[in-house]
Amino acid sequence: MTGASRGLGAAAAVAIAAEGAHLILVARTVGGLEETDDAVRRAGGSATLVPLDLKEGERIDQLGAALHSRFGKLDMLVAAAGALGTLTPVGHIRPEHWADVMAVNLTANWRLIRSLDPLLRLSDAGRAVFVSCPEATGRDAYWAGYAVSKGGLETLVRLYAAELANTRVRANIFDPGAMRTGLRAAAFPGEDPTMVPSPDDAANAMLPMLMAAYPHQGERVVFA
């Protein structure tokens, strides 16, 4: 579970914990991970905390080996971490800002697949869900960095899903729509947050996609 310290990642962790699962919680912020861990335990689950900056690709590469050594397999992957970048005209995006948003939203997810795919294949019914957004369609001006990274992610997941067609693993895309998160607050600073749905609602909508009985492959599920 990436992005597990807040927002949809934290909400999804609690929803999954209510099913009695043991979770691997990944995020940069130790304090946030500990808060999610407390909520997971209250919900009836347990967790292993992995403080990790997803821009540190080599550490993602090491994650799969570490999890295999300790757990032997992985039943679910929820890739919920995201970086907004800057909302500005395409020609005004600074190279370092472009690199950062691509590293978190696209490259890190490729490295997660590369590292964790063998563990998902060892599960009786591995499930992977990657979180996208409406901006992936490229319709909104000034969202270029974020939109391109999420559009690339959706293409990556569809290709990965096609490669999984003859396996027991399923990979899909989840678009939670508007949620009351820090990322949205940064993108829409004048918005009244009380008018925006909680991540808890989206997390509950995502939950069936992580169940063994979920049959779909490469699907884009929109929750709105």
Architecture overview:
- This protein is of the alpha/beta class.
- It has one domain: Rossmann fold, CATH 3.40.50.720.
- It is built from 7 helices and 6 strands; from the N terminus they run αβαβαβαβαβααβ.
- It has helices spanning 7-17, 30-43, 57-71, 95-121, 144-163, 182-187, 199-206; strands spanning 22-27, 46-51, 76-79, 127-131, 170-175, 220-222.
- The strands form 2 sheets. It has a 4-stranded parallel beta sheet with strand order 3-4-5-6, with helices on one face.
- Helix 1 packs parallel to helix 2 (30-43).
- The model has no long low-confidence stretch (mean pLDDT 96).
Main features:
NAD(P)-bd_dom_sf, Rossmann fold, 224 residues, alpha/beta, 2,3-dihydro-2,3-dihydroxybenzoate dehydrogenase activity
Overall number of structural domains = 1
Helix/strand class: alpha/beta
If you compute it from the alpha carbons, what radius of gyration comes out, rounded to the nearest whole angstrom?
Answer: 17 Å
Proportion of helical residues: 40-55%
DSSP helix count? 7
- For CATH, the homologous superfamily is named as NAD(P)-binding Rossmann-like Domain
Q: Approximately what portion of the residues adopt beta-strand conformation?
A: 5-15%
Low-confidence sequence ranges: none
Mean pLDDT: 96
Shape: globular
Beta-strand segment tally: 6
Report the CATH architecture. Answer: 3-Layer(aba) Sandwich
What is the ordering of alpha helices and beta strands?
HEHEHEHEHEHHE
Instruction: Trace the largest sheet across and list its strands.
Output: 3-4-5-6
The CA-CA distance between the termini, in Å, is 22 Å
CATH level-1 class:
Alpha Beta
CATH topology: Rossmann fold
The biggest sheet, with number of strands, parallel, antiparallel or mixed sense and barrel status, is: 4 strands, parallel
